[in-house]
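Sample pair:
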Amino acid sequence: MSYIIKEVTNVLEKYAKPVLRIGMSLIFLYFGYQQLTNNASWQGFVPDFALILGLTAEKIVMFNSIFELSFGLLLLFGIYTRIVALLLSIHLFIISFSLGFSDLGIRDFGLAIATFVVFMNGKDGFTLYNKWKKQK
């Protein structure tokens, strides 16, 4: 019985990192797509300090959408996993702190922690980067 438990644990450990990386990338892709296709719904979330840059809320949401879609794709395929996950986690920490102690702020803080864990793990065995490396 302990052999079966050990084998199941090994399988779970093998897939834990890519499942977290891919799951987090899908979250960024979803929200990036939502911001791209329904920009007006997201403009109310733009904090006042972001408007100091002289950009409109519409443009900030559009830039945020492009950022999340681009980096979400890089994370999905495991390209520059550490740096991409670090930038996305910092991005989410900023969002969570700007939202404050609210349901959305706490949710984004949890997602920021999960993305930071992807940064700490680095690339896993299921990244496109590893496929390219093996072919060379």
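The chain has a mean pLDDT of 91.
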